[in-house]
Amino acid sequence: MNFNNLDLNLLVVFNSIFDEGSITKASDKLNLSQSAVSNALNRLRYTMKDDLFFRSGDRMQPTPAALEFVGPIKKALELIDGTLTREGFNPAESEKRFAFCVPDVAASKVAAKVVQTLQEKAPKIKITNIALQNGVLERLKNHDIDFILAADPHMAQEMESPVGQRFDEYFDSFEVYRDTYRCVARKGHPLIKNNKISFENFLSADHVFISIDGISNSPVDMTLAKMGRKRNKMVSVNYYQAAIEIVRETDCIISLSSNVSALVNNKDEFDVVPLPFKSDEFSVKMIWNKRSTDDPANAWMRSILFGVKDEVFL
User: Fold this and answer.
1) What is the domain range of residue 208?
2) Which of 111, 5, 89, 1 is nearest to 52 (CA)?
3) Which of 28, 56, 84 is where one domain is finished?
4) For residue 228, how many C-alpha atoms fall within 13 Å in the half-sphere facing its CB?
5) Does an H or E element contain 129, and which?
6) Residues in a beta bridge with 151
7) Is the pLDDT of residue 44 over 70?
8) What DSSP letter does each residue of 195-221 carry, written as one string?
9) Which of 66, 68, 55 is nearest to 14 (CA)?
10) Do 260 and 194 reside in the same domain of the chain?
C-alpha cells in the first residue's frame, strides 16, 4: 500500500465505521452524507485491497485485515489530533478569521457546509470569501488569503506570474477532482436539437466566457485551436452567476465543467449537452501557503474542507 497517496480523511471514516458499526451512524458522527461515507469506504477498500467491513445483521463487522489496521490507525489519528491542538489552538474558543478565494457557484455550496460545521464546533470562527481575481497567488503568499479553490484554466494567468512560476516553492495543493466541459444553454435554445449541438452550431453561437482577466483561453479554445477553428466569445465575465443569468435570458451558450453544470442546473432550468468534440480534462485544486501546512488552525480548516468535498463535488 502506498501511503504517500493516502487521503488521511479516509482514516477518519474508517475509525468512525469501526467505532459505530454502521455507515449511517458514522455519517451522523462525521456530519457527512451516507453516500460520502460509502464513497470514502470504497476508496479505502481500493487502497488497502480489502473489504475492511462486511454486514452481519444490523452491524458492519471488521474483516481480519481491518482488525490489524485499527490499532495503528487509531494511534495515527491520536498523534494528528495532538499535533493540531498544540500551541493552544482550540476551535471551540478560537476567534480566527479564515479568508477563502472560491468561485461564486462553488462558494454557495462549500460555504454552507463549512458554516454548518463551524456552528456546531467552532462558533466564534469567521470566514470571508473573495472573488477569483488577478494577484490571488501573491495574496496567498502574503497570507492575506488562506485557501484558493480554482480550476487550472482559471489560474493559467496566475501561474505565469513571478510567484506562480515558483509555485512549488511557495504553495501546497490538493486535487479536488478532474473534469471536462459540457455545453449549457437555456431551455428551448434553437441550436440544441435532440439533446445535442452540432459542431458548426457550436462555433456560430454567441458564447459567454468566464475568465479572471478576460483574455485567457480555456481547454475548449485550445482544443479548437488545434483544429484550426475558433468560437465566437461574445461576452467575458469573471462571475459564474452573471454568466448564468446571461445564458438564462439570451441565446448565448456557455461551456462549463460537468460538476459546475450540475450545480447550476440543480433545478433543471437549462439544457446541458455534450460538447460536439472532445476537449482535454482539467484539474480543480485547493491551494494553500506551504508555510501554513503545519499550522494547527490551517490544518484544522483543511480537514473541514476535505470533509465537505465529497458532498459538494461528485
Assistant:
1) 181-280
2) 1
3) 84
4) 0
5) strand 126-130
6) 284
7) yes
8) TB--HHHHHHSEEEEE-SSS-PPPHHH
9) 66
10) yes
